[in-house]
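quick one, two chains, predict together pls
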Amino acid sequence: DIQMTQSPSSLSASVGDRVTITCRASQRISNYLSWYQQKPGKAPKLLIYSASGLQSGVPSRFSGSGSGTDFTLTISSLQPEDFATYYCQQTNSSPLTFGGGTTVEIK
Amino acid sequence: EVQLVESGGGLVQPGGSLRLSCAASGFTFSDHYMGWVRQAPGKGLEWVGRIRNKVNSYITDYAASVKGRFTISRDDSQNSLYLQMNSLKTEDTAVYYCAREGSGWYYVYWGQGTLVTVSS
């Protein structure tokens, strides 16, 4: 099975900050990587697919990059509604494993 | 509008069984792979498994943690997805989400989740 490791597990940031979250796969997965945002008590929301594809309706301040084993999610200017937990997921092969999550908190 | 509505959650004793349902609407259900994802209280997301469509022979895949205990099925005539859970353990306590896969196996649409509590 492919293991997905996210870092950091949590971070504190201020509105307007640039935030970067990293996801590393235990083996090469090409660009089969998705990012989700989850707020408390809610279902996850797809932000990025295929490593860098912006899902329809998602603000352009979110971007994804990477290929192979190393990936990043960047929020260019953090907004109040972006405080949430973010997960990566590899979609290269079953089981479709998730990373452990990164919680973005208000500084 | 795509809608996924889970039902069937509740309290069950260890060793017991439970069947979750997911009613789909707003899209051609039979065309899509469907999956289940769970989230234990205060924990991260865990992929449970998925079922392919008829064209791909309804093949199922499961996480190692549930393989042999959980069974995913679907009824395309009823636009419904199911998760049969047997031999439940306390560690199966979680909110269970059904989700529709996109072309790249990522999940664009999610249900609201249903809580399963395994406790004596």
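Chain A touches chain B through 24 residues (CB under 8 Å).
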